[in-house]
Amino acid sequence: MKKGLIVGLLSIEIGFLAGNILFNKTKIIPSWKRLEKYYFIQEGIYSSYENMKKNLANITTKAIDLEDKKYYVYVGITKRKEIADKIINLYKNKGINVRLTEKYLSSDEFLQNVLQFDYLLEDKKDEEEILTIQNVVLANYEEIIKKE
To answer: Is the whole model's pTM more than 0.90, yes or no?
Structure first.
């Protein structure tokens, strides 16, 4: 009985120490160092602003990143692959070629927003509702991520 009690107390102590170490590790890592994977639905990459503007005349829901003198155009952002596929199919049905790219971002605020909008998109089938929600997600991207 003494042996069982000692083993039990030792197990509890090891579990407590292991949990404490894990908890403290995640607590020590600042949020700006934790990168989260997002699925970006990309319409295209343009080297000319004029070409981009001409090609995007019919697309109102978008975010544009300028990197290395190229314009990267995104029409959707999500954390979930199945929602990314839903957005891709929506654009393909409209005759617009898009592709899936992955990006890693570190904003806790943006993460919480995207997770909430993904939840809203879960059962949406109406094109207008999906585009409206993605418009808000892209606006959040512009407001939170691009201003950091």
So the answer is: no
